[in-house]
């Protein structure tokens, strides 16, 4: 049974919207994660380092987006499996406020510590 204190349709809608937003961000930032190719005869060493640092930051942002997308997919699966809101460790209900803050959370506050 899904969490009795939550509007599951609203939770599903929020998760789907967030998934859509993250996927759009991922697509729009693809070029900033591509391999840095610079003409070393016309670009200085510091410019190359700046470009490589920007690429590394974009790659880390993408890694975080992909982690968030996996958590969202897991939350959507728990809704479909009719166990959304149950702590994966102790089986008790996760506080409704905690789930409203982050619907992809897996554990109650006690087990998360």
From TrEMBL:
Gene Ontology molecular functions: zinc ion binding
Record domain Zinc finger DksA/TraR C4-type: where: 84-113
ZnF (dksA C4-type) residues: 87-111
Chain residue ranges for the region called Disordered: 19-39
This protein's UniProt keywords: Metal-binding, Zinc, Zinc-finger
Highest taxon of the lineage: Bacteria
A UniProt-annotated Pfam family: zf-dskA_traR
SUPFAM superfamilies associated with the record: Glucocorticoid receptor-like (DNA-binding domain)
InterPro entries xref list: Znf_DskA_TraR (IPR000962)
Coiled coil (residue ranges): none
The name this protein goes by in its record: Transcriptional regulator, TraR/DksA family
Species of provenance: Aidingimonas halophila
């Amino acid at each position: 049974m899904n969490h009795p204190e939550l509007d599951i349709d609203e939770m599903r809608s929020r998760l789907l919207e967030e998934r859509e937003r993250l996927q759009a961000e991922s697509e729009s930032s693809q070029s900033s994660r591509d391999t840095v190719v610079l003409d070393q005869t016309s670009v200085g060493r510091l410019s190359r380092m700046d470009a490589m640092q920007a690429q590394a930051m974009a790659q880390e942002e993408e890694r975080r987006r992909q982690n968030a997308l996996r958590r969202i997919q897991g939350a959507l699966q728990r809704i479909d499996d009719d166990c959304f809101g149950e702590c994966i460790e102790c089986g008790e209900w996760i506080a409704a406020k905690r789930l409203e803050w982050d619907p992809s959370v897996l554990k109650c506050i006690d087990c998360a510590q």
